[in-house]
């Protein structure tokens, strides 16, 4: 839930916490090229690193005309359980799910 709060919050929109959230909202309507894909991946890694209870195992970003989808595989500590987290942003402007 804490990670989803980050992914559902545009960076700079939280009072007194300018580094909380994600830059992905700024990139949604940019052409989905290598630059944009890498910028999204770097931001996802940054967000994941704010959460000490998980470790990033794998990350991939997909885009089509309707949505941007991020597949994140996480290792939950100390249980050593691996789970996939899907975060989808509608290009139509809806929030992440």
Helix/strand layout:
Blueprint: H1 2-7, H2 24-27, H3 34-49, E1 54-63, E2 67-76, E3 81-90
Antiparallel strand pairs: 1-2, 2-3
Structural classification: alpha+beta
Mean of residue pLDDT values: 91
Order of helices and strands, N to C? HHHEEE
**Number of helices, where a helix is a run of at least 4 consecutive DSSP H or I residues:** 3
In whole angstroms, how far apart are the ends?
11 Å
Largest sheet: 3 strands, antiparallel
User: Roughly what percent helix?
Assistant: 25-40%
Please indicate the percent range of residues in DSSP E strands (runs of 2 or more): 25-35%
Give Rg in angstroms: 13 Å
Instruction: Give start-end ranges of low-pLDDT stretches.
Output: none
Oligomer: single chain
Question: What shape does the CA trace take?
Answer: globular
Number of distinct beta strands: 3
Widest sheet: strand order? Answer: 1-2-3
Structure write-up:
The chain has 97 residues and is an alpha+beta fold. Helices cover 27% and strands 31% of the residues. It has three helices and three strands. Strands 1-2-3 form a three-stranded antiparallel sheet, covered by helices on one side. The longest helix has 16 residues, at 34-49. The termini are close together.
């Amino acid at each position: 839930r804490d990670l989803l709060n980050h992914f559902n919050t545009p960076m700079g929109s939280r009072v007194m916490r300018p580094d909380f959230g994600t830059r992905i909202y700024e990139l949604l309507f940019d052409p989905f090229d290598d630059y944009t894909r890498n910028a999204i991946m770097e931001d996802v890694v940054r967000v994941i690193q704010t959460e000490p209870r998980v470790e990033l195992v794998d990350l991939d970003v997909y885009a089509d005309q309707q949505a941007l989808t991020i597949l994140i595989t996480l290792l939950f500590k100390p249980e050593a359980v691996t789970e996939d987290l899907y975060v989808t942003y509608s290009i139509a402007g809806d929030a992440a799910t």
